[in-house]
Specification:
The chain is of the alpha+beta class and 85 residues long. The protein has one domain. It is 25% helix and 42% strand.
């Protein structure tokens, strides 16, 4: 499961994909990162606040709903770990 408790080495080897989400109403837009691990758990991180974990869920659907509730919009690209590592 994604956790700020995991050390960096474990997180580097455990993520499956990440998505970039923005709040287009703010200027400059607020950016959040949704990161899914190999088990399907997701964490939402705030790169503007030292990548602090601000939401954690057991599924992509829960994380997606959380972002949509706050009217965030997903950017088109999904980054896959297998393409980067």
């Amino acid at each position: 499961m994604l956790s700020h408790e995991l050390n960096q080495d474990e997180q580097i080897n455990n993520w499956q994909f990440l998505e970039v989400w923005i709040d287009p109403i703010l200027f400059p837009p607020r950016v959040l990162l949704l990161v899914s691990d190999q088990e399907g758990c997701c964490g939402i991180y705030d790169p503007g606040n030292q990548y602090k974990l601000i939401f954690q869920s057991d599924s992509y659907e829960q994380a997606n709903s959380w972002l949509l509730e706050d009217e965030y919009e997903r950017l088109e690209t999904r980054v896959l770990a297998e393409e980067v590592l």
